[in-house]
Structure formats: structure tokens, C-alpha cells
Write a structure and sequence with these properties.
Length: 425
């Protein structure tokens, strides 16, 4: 019997059409195309209403929160001596310095001497005139005493004559009663008494007038002596000021003229710097001038150390768009300060509590603080109007337009210009 091949055959089952590899590849391509079509439709719907796109990786975002805002101003300044008097020549002469620039001096120490022969000669003349007037005053006093004595003698002699005339009249009355003398002799005695009274009264009056006149002459000389004494004292003061002494403990700053130079009156000779009293001279932009005030707190940075200070003076004029303010160290003057040392100061203009704040950024300069880009989730940002208040060093106050928790773009977005809604990538 001939054997067939049925034992070698294997029965195969029919494969469904969807399991065929060729059909699987075709289905995958179709599904991918459909998904891309759906994504494109959604993307078109999401971007069809926006004015542009912006990448979050290229901008800075900050959140609005509540806190305390310190409105301050950072300025540059230099250390200057609060007390640096300039010394002047009191008279014309030759100046001779006893110190050099940079020397340390003590208060009352001799710094320079001005040789003025003219002033010394004038003092000698006025002193001689004073001595002359003093001698004349003494002579006048002696003369006044002598004149008063002579007047007193005349008055006394007139009184003696008056007494004799009274006695002679009494004798004449007795004699006329006894018919011893004539009526003519009696009348003569009466006339002599009247003349004696008149002479005595005139002598007394003359003595009083002479006394007043002598007193007036003496007083006049006394006033002249007093005036001359003041003149001598003034010249003596000027001569004493020819020796120029240091008014403070410090250092000789600079010499304005050379050694043994001829100087005129009121010529600047040198400056003395008081090293125990330094202040900071800070230049403040003129747009902050109205915000400055006396006794305003200042924080001074000295080699990383914060030192307290306060404003003691504000310049009344603007120079090079700046106002100069003087700052005093309130917690004692630190060591190792030098003239013209450059320092940074932080002026505390204002302190506001519990206000809405956001980090300061370029968006303030871009729109003048009138608009900001507020994030709506992670996909969009909308341009909203805002109102800002006080500006701090790192933060800015938000008055209206935003609420606590909002996030805004703080960096510049010049490419968006006047866009209202942007998509975020």
C-alpha cells in the first residue's frame, strides 16, 4: 500500500485581517495622524485669541505678598572734617611758620608768627599818648584842687569882710543914737555892709562854678584817657594775634603761602583739621531733595560694618543735579577714618507697615508702573493696569490692580509692546 503525505502536513488557522503586520503599520500611521490633527486643532483654539507667546524661562516672575516696606535711598559720600578752620593773617607783615603741613598740633600751640613792624610802632605811639594823657589827668586833678582852694580862700575872706561890716554897722547904730557920728557916716557903714554881703555871695557862687568847671575838665581828660586806653588795648590785641595759635587739636591741613612771605591783612595762611569730628558729605539726586529732612536716620557702610547716623544739614542749592547732605555718626565716631574716604550710605526715607509688596523689576521703568503682566495659571499672562506707591531698594508697593498671591512678570517685556494676552511656553 502506497503511503501518502498526510502525516507530514500541518493544519494552519486563518489569521484575522487586523492582526496582519501590514495592516498594523497602516493603522498606527492613521492613529498618529488623527492624534496630531486633534492636537493641532486644540493648539489653534488656544492661540487663536492671544497676541503673542512668551517663554517662562526667559522672564522673571514674582508673587505679590504683604509686608513692611522700607523706602530708602543708597548714595555715595566722602568723609570730611566737621571742623576745619582756616587761619588768616591779622595784619600786614612777614609770616614765619612754626609747623609744616601734616604736623599734629594741640590746641593753643604756636603755628605761625607774623612780624609787623608797622603795627608794633603804632602800638608804641598809642601807648606813649596814653601815658601823656594820664600825666595830664593827674596834673589837672592837682590844678583843680589848687583852684578850689583859692576859691575857698576868696570866699572865706569875703565872709570875714562881711563880719567886719556887720560889726561896723552895729557900732555906727550906737554912735548915731548917741549923736557921736553923722548920718553920713552911718549910711557909709550901711553901704559897706551891703557891699560885703554882695562880695561874699559872689565869692560863694564863683567857688561853686569853678568847682563844676574843674570837675568837667577833669572828666573830659578822664574820658580821653579811657578812650586812649581802649585804643591801646585794641592794638595790643592785634599784636598778640600776630602769634597764630591752633584753635583745636588736630592736624595742619595745608599751608596757603610760603615760609617768610609778605602777606596782606586777612590773607589765608593755613587750615587746621579737627580729627576728632568727622562727618559724611553725601550727594543726593535732586529728585529726592524734597524727601530729605533733618535728623533723618542713615545707615553708613564702613568696610561691611553698618554704622548709625543722622542728617544734620542739607544744602539749599542744587549743584550738578545733586543736593549735598551732611551726615553725623550718632553712635560715636569710628576709628581709622580719613579725610575724603569714600563710603556708601543708606538713607531711610520712609517705613510703611502691612502693605502689598512685589519684587522691584524692570516692569516699573517699562510702563512707568502703570501696567503689569499677571499670570493666569501656567499658560497665559494678561496685561492689567496697576497703581504703585512707595519704591524701596528691592521692593515696590502695590496700591491697586493686584491682590495678595498674584504672580506677575517683573522683567522687561519690550517685545510684547501693547499686547493684552500672551501664551506662555
Amino acid at each position: 500500500m502506497i503511503r501518502d503525505t498526510s502525516g507530514q502536513d500541518v493544519q494552519l488557522r486563518a489569521v484575522p485581517a487586523w492582526k496582519k503586520p501590514r495592516n498594523l503599520k497602516t493603522g498606527a500611521v492613521v492613529a498618529l495622524a488623527a492624534a496630531f490633527l486633534v492636537w493641532g486643532v486644540n493648539a489653534w483654539h488656544s492661540t487663536s485669541s492671544v497676541d503673542g507667546t512668551l517663554s517662562l524661562a526667559e522672564v522673571n516672575v514674582a508673587q505679590v505678598k504683604r509686608g513692611d516696606l522700607v523706602r530708602d535711598l543708597v548714595v555715595q559720600g566722602k568723609v570730611v572734617a566737621a571742623n576745619s578752620p582756616t587761619l588768616f593773617s591779622p595784619a600786614q607783615g612777614i609770616v614765619k611758620f612754626a609747623v609744616k603741613a601734616g604736623d599734629s598740633v594741640k590746641q593753643g600751640q604756636l603755628l605761625a608768627d607774623v612780624d609787623s613792624p608797622q603795627l608794633a610802632n603804632q602800638l608804641a605811639q598809642e601807648q606813649a599818648k596814653f601815658n601823656k594823657l594820664a600825666v595830664e589827668l593827674q596834673r589837672q586833678k592837682i590844678q583843680a584842687k589848687r583852684q578850689q582852694l583859692e576859691n575857698r580862700q576868696k570866699a572865706d575872706l569875703a565872709k570875714v569882710d562881711l563880719t567886719a561890716a556887720e560889726r561896723e554897722l552895729r557900732r555906727a547904730k550906737i554912735s548915731i543914737d548917741k549923736k557921736i557920728i553923722s548920718q553920713l557916716d552911718f549910711e557909709k557903714a550901711s553901704d559897706d555892709l551891703a557891699r560885703a554881703k554882695l562880695e561874699y555871695r559872689q565869692a560863694e557862687q564863683n567857688a561853686e562854678l569853678q568847682k563844676e568847671s574843674l570837675a568837667f575838665d577833669t572828666k573830659t581828660l578822664e574820658l580821653q584817657v579811657s578812650q586812649q586806653k581802649l585804643q591801646v588795648a585794641e592794638l595790643q590785641r592785634k599784636v598778640n594775634e600776630l602769634q597764630i595759635l591752633s584753635p583745636v587739636d588736630g592736624t595742619v591741613g595745608s599751608l596757603s603761602v610760603a615760609q617768610r612771605s609778605a602777606v596782606a591783612p586777612n590773607t589765608a595762611l593755613m587750615t587746621v583739621v579737627d580729627l576728632s569730628s568727622f562727618e559724611l558729605e553725601a550727594a543726593v539726586p535732586e529728585n529726592y531733595a524734597d524727601d530729605l529732612g533733618l535728623a533723618m536716620a542713615v545707615e553708613i557702610d564702613l568696610s561691611g560694618k553698618k554704622l548709625p547716623g543722622e542728617i544734620t544739614a542739607i544744602s539749599p542749592e542744587v549743584i550738578n543735579n545733586q543736593v549735598v547732605a551732611r551726615v553725623r555718626f550718632t553712635d560715636g565716631q569710628p576709628d581709622k577714618l580719613r579725610q575724603n574716604l569714600r563710603l556708601t550710605a543708606r538713607i531711610l526715607l520712609e517705613n510703611r507697615s502691612d502693605v502689598m509688596l512685589v519684587k522691584r523689576g524692570a516692569f516699573i521703568d517699562q510702563s512707568g508702573g502703570r501696567y503689569a503682566w499677571k499670570l493666569n495659571g501656567e499658560q497665559q499672562a494678561v496685561r492689567v493696569p496697576i497703581q504703585i506707591g512707595a519704591l524701596g531698594l528691592n521692593q515696590v508697593e502695590i496700591v491697586s490692580g493686584l491682590k495678595e498671591g498674584d504672580r506677575i512678570i517683573t522683567s522687561a517685556t519690550d517685545e510684547l509692546k501693547n499686547a493684552q494676552l500672551v501664551a506662555l511656553k
